[in-house]
Each structure stands twice: as structure tokens, then as C-alpha cells.
Amino acid sequence: MKKLYCLIIFSLITIAGYCQQTNLSIIPEPVELIKKDNFFLLPRTITISTDAVDNAAVEFSASYLKNRLKSSSDYDVNISSESDNASIQLLINKNPENQLGNEGYSLSVTTSSIVIKANQPAGLFYGVQTLLQLLPKEIESNSTIKNTNWTVPCVEITDYPRFGWRGLMLDVSRHFFTKEEVKRFIDDMARYKFNLFHWHLTDDEGWRIEIKSLPKLTEIGAWNVKRVGHFGEFSEIKDNEPRTNGGFYTQEDIKEVVQYAKERFVEVLPEIEMPGHSMAAIASYPELSCTPGADKYRVISGEKFIEWPATGHFYGLKDNTLCPANEKVYPFAEKVISEVAALFPFPYIHVGGDECIQNFWEKSPAVKALMKKENLKTMLDVQGYFEKRLEKIVASKGKKMIGWDEILEAGVSPTAAIMSWRGTKGGIEASKKGHEVVMSPTTYVYLDYMQSDEIMEPRIYASLRLNKTYSYEPVSEGINEKLVKGIQGNIWTEQIYNFRQVQYMAWPRAFAISEIAWSPSAKKNWSGFVGKVEDHFERFNAAEKKYAPSMYDPAFNVTQNAKGELTVSLSTEIEGLDIYYSFDNSYPDHFYPKYTSAVTVPMDATLMRVITYRDKQPVGRMNNMPVAELKKRVAKKK
Ligand code: ACM
What we know:
alpha/beta, Chitobiase, domain 2, globular, TIM Barrel, single chain, 29 strands
């Protein structure tokens, strides 16, 4: 009797301690997934076996899995080359399975074992990522959870990526992020099967990579004056303000980050911006300019120095360009590209090429002389002249050139790859002309854009909601599909002052990009995706990582009726939310008026507060919309 009593108690404790993943929330969605009814209970001592002894890349995946399990649980975890008694096996296929390619994997979870197979180590790593997402969210915790009884649902998965280039870009120039932060960013990318980290290393606000033959680039070019507020509108910087804000990566740091990324099957694409966006270089070496007075220029801190008229072409108040007519520029580029090429094993170097201001070139006698000599008709031709010489330098270092889509307009050889950012047009045209393209259009994948109404987000030029990102199809009409290498989301950091905000801007939109880049387009399913995003929010909570809850914020649409009253329509991008609102300045909850159709703003009201709920629980943030703002929007529409 006593024995039976003990058994019942033990069973109850065990059942209570089980931690199961209820939904299968795998991001990016696998190609084929069959869920079975049962589950695998992780034993107290977990053995991970790998048959590819002495293969560092395979061993990395085994130790990565071990570390992830050990950092959040109290399991004993061993790695062995023997598969007997192994709970988790990582196997390289002796006979490669064609459909898996270099990055695909199969994952089989039965009640007795977990087996991941792949043709190449990268596939095993991605199989490990999927397995980790099948474990309970507590696996994401950074502290040990005691008495874990974790289970993995039984599944059969076959999975491989749609595109070979699955990228995210981080701008470390506008605001500097430390080597450790960059590694964290890369680690998060790898968890969602991104394989390309585009490192935007130079711009007007900072030169971030040590170039040993040009020391002033980091002695001077890496430092500006710290300001907060609205970047681009900071007041003029005074000469006596300390230039101590910023930083740079030594070449040893760069090697460390490249190695860290490589272990996680992430390639690193360095970007060195030329000929525009080069104020940090000009401030360091003013002789690279054609503009008199460039020796007075300083690294930009976020004060305005370019005009962006709503209509018409942008122009500079200061000249931030390397001058194509200045022969000192080419040995400079040669030195920089030479050192960069030696540091980054990736076959491409990104040379920028976007948003090159021309108004100083128009005034330059040196540029005029170059145009005459080379029979160049326009300023774009002048940029094209520069790009062609630059491509020769890049090629001489054994690398391929990639640049923003302006370099296509300027004219480059078909061997240059194009990153299409000004919508999709540049990518479509480039592919028709035989260029490789990476699709990175502002309209879908610019992760610096606001994620909901601008009253809720740090202000920047445009908005891009999660559902719009998710709707993106890179193989659009007219494009030469064979030349689409893949897609990439970009995080420009003008308005991003710290790493928590980088996370906020990246996630969840980067979940959507990871699905577009990896999963078959036929698997697209918005409501299913939203459910998975919410599960991954829970994972981020467990990991104490930041993400944007903006998908819960309503969209405001304001009009004016015949009586002159303002009428507000609200909508949400996700289904099943209840919206409650107030006009009396108090904070609405689910006892307040529920939004059902357009509401009229009461006379004298100054504020509309809105919040979203699901099942009587608040899910969204309090959105506080000033009536003055609604009036402004109506006036703009007129
Ligand atoms: C860019 O966003 N200016 C490439």
C-alpha cells in the first residue's frame, strides 16, 4: 500500500513537472512537418552523439546544443561519438540526399530518440535550431530551471531553405554597438536560420573598422559628439564639445566576430560606403574631397547636413563624398579594400553607392575636367566612372562587388551584384540585365521603419507593419528568378540608440523575413504565423530579449464628416482583438466602450485613448492619440 501511495505521489509530481510545448511553433516554417501524437521525454542524463568525429563544424552543433540545454536546465548533458544510448543523434548522411542540399536537414523525434541528419554541418545546425524550438519556452531562459521534465513532441521534419542569401543588416555607424552586442545579434539571427550578416561599417557618423594603413580613420573618424533626441535635427555641434562618443572594432575584434558568425553558419558581408555617406572618412582625410574647406568638416553627430526636399532631389549642405576626380581617392580605396578583403572570407564586399550627393561635384573644377577628359555627360556618369574603377580594385583583391541599386543607374559591369532597396524596381531591372540581386526593398523589409502608428514609435520617415513585411514575395513579376540570391532586412540606426532598441526593431519583423527567405511561399499563412509569433514572444520573454508588441496597436484612420466632426476608424492587423477606447482622458479597460464602427470625436475632447484586449486580458499598449494630431491628419488629407 505504501509502495502504491509512493508511486501515485511520484507520478503526480512527474506529471506536474512536465513542461510541454503545446503548439508546434517553428520559425521559419519547415518544408514538411508531420506531427505525431506522442512525445519524447528528455532523460535526466542526455547523451548527444555525433558520428563526424574531428569535424569541428559538427562538433560545434553538438556543443551548442549541450550549452543551450545546460544553461537553462539541470540536466546532465554529454557528448559522445558512440550512438548507443544516445538520446540525440547528429548524423551526416553518408549518401547525400539531394533535396536537402547544403543547409537542409531531417529531424525525427520518436518516443525513444531524436535523430537529426544532414548532408553538411550547416544542416545539422539548423536541425538543432528546430529541435530547440520544439522544446518548452523555458529552454530560452538564461538561468537554471530546476527539476525539469521536458518533452519534445514526436515529429518527422524534412526541411531546407528557399534562398541561399538570408540576410540582416546592422548599421553600426549611426550608433555604435559593441563587439559583444554584434555577437548577440548574430546569435539571434542564427536561431532563425539567417545566414548572412551585412555589417554596415562606415558612414557619415562613424568609421568603425580599423584600417592599419590609414590610422586616422579610427583615431578621428570613429568619434562624434553624443546627442539624444531626434537624430537629423540635433543643433549645430560646437568646436569645444567632446568627441568621445562612438568606437570601432580592431582587426582582432573583426576576426573574432567573423569566427563567431562562421561557427553559426553565418557569413559576414562588410560594407564600406563610397563615394557618398563618407563624412567620417573625409573628416579623417580631408584631402579626399574636391571641395574647398573640407578640412573644417567633422564626423556628423546627427545634426542636419543634407536637405531632403519632399519634391526634388536631395542635396548636401556639406560635401560628404569621396571625389571621383581626385586621384588620391583610388589609392585610399585600394588600401581600405585590401585590408577589408583580408579580414572577411565572404566572396563579396559591399561598397555602398547609395544617396550620393552631387551638388558639390557640379561646382568642382576637378570634376568638370574629368567629365571633359572621360566624356562623361552627367553626375551619374561621374559616379559610374568611380564605381568601375572601384570594381577593378575589388576584383584585384579576389572579391566580387555588391552595392545599393544606385550603382546600376550609374553604370557598372554585369559582374557587380545589386542590392535593391528603393523598392523592387532596381532588383527587377538589374536581374534583367544579368546582375545577381539581393532584394531588400524599403517597402517591405526596412526594419528601421516604425511598426505601428507614429504616436507609438520613435519617429522615422515611414511605417512598415508586420503584415506588410510578411506579405512580401521576392520573386515578383518581371524578375529573373535565377538571379535572385535572396532577401535581406536592414536595420539603420539613426533613431536607434541602444541594443535593446535594435532587438525591438528587429523582432518580430525579422521572423517574417526569415520565413520569406527560408520557407516555401505556398506555406504562407498569416494567422498561423501570428500564432507562432506570439509563442516566440513568450520565448523572448523567457530569454529577457526585447521585441515590439506593435502588431497589437490599432491603425487610426481619421476623416471629417459633413458637420465638420472628426470620425475615427480603428482596425488591427491581427484577428480576434477587442478594442476599447476613451475620450475622457482616463485609461480604458474592457469595461469601457468597445469599438465596433467609426466613432465621432466629442466636442472639446483632447485625447483619444485606445487599448486592445483578447479574452478580457490586455494584449496591446495604451495608445494615446491627441485630438490635435487627428486634426492635423485630416488637414493633410485636404
Ligand atoms: C539606403 O537605405 N540608403 C540604402
